[in-house]
Amino acid sequence: MKKIINTDQAPAPIGPYNQAVLSGNTLYISGQISLDPKTGELVQNSIEEETTQVMQNLKAILSAAGMDFGHVIKSSIFISDMNNFGKINEVYGTYFSEDTAPARETVEVANLPKFVNVEISMIAVNPDQE
Predict the structure, then answer these.
(1) Which domain holds residue 98?
(2) pTM of this prediction?
(3) Residue 26 lies in a domain
(4) What would the pLDDT profile of 10-25 be if each residue is shown by its tens digit?
């Protein structure tokens, strides 16, 4: 069964997609960028602040589905400049325990929506959910 997950604590989709889809006990979260859900404005003062906003948006969606970062099994990180990898990775790493961190890939791309510097999507599984 497919259940749509949406929360006003994360930015509304800017296209024909949902924030996340729950199928059984697996949550598929659409790529999040640094839009502040309260203002609708991009947070881009620094790559660290931008990444923090992305992670907070992901956290809000996980929470709306009754999950947290401990349930994440896979992350995909898209960045516009690989030179920012270290700073992005440092912020990202604060949300996970190193011994249980999810699988992940990080890919440099030519452009991202709204010309942001980082976009992250996730897959999470809650074995206690039906």
Answers:
(1) 2-125
(2) 0.96
(3) yes
(4) 999 988 999 999 999 9
CATH number at residue 74: 3.30.1330.40
Number of independent structural domains in the chain:
1
Alpha helices, DSSP H only, in the chain?
47-64, 85-93
Q: Is residue 92, in this structure, part of any structural domain at all?
A: yes
Instruction: Give the DSSP letter of residue 29.
Output: E
Collect all residues with Cβ–Cβ distance below 8 Å to 87 and sequence separation of at least 6.
47, 48, 51
Token couple for 32: 């999040």
For residues 11, 84, 124 and 18, what is the CA-based torsion angle, rounded to 10 degrees? 30
Q: How far apart are CA 67 and CA 38, in angstroms?
A: 22
Rounded CA separation 53/103 (Å)? 21
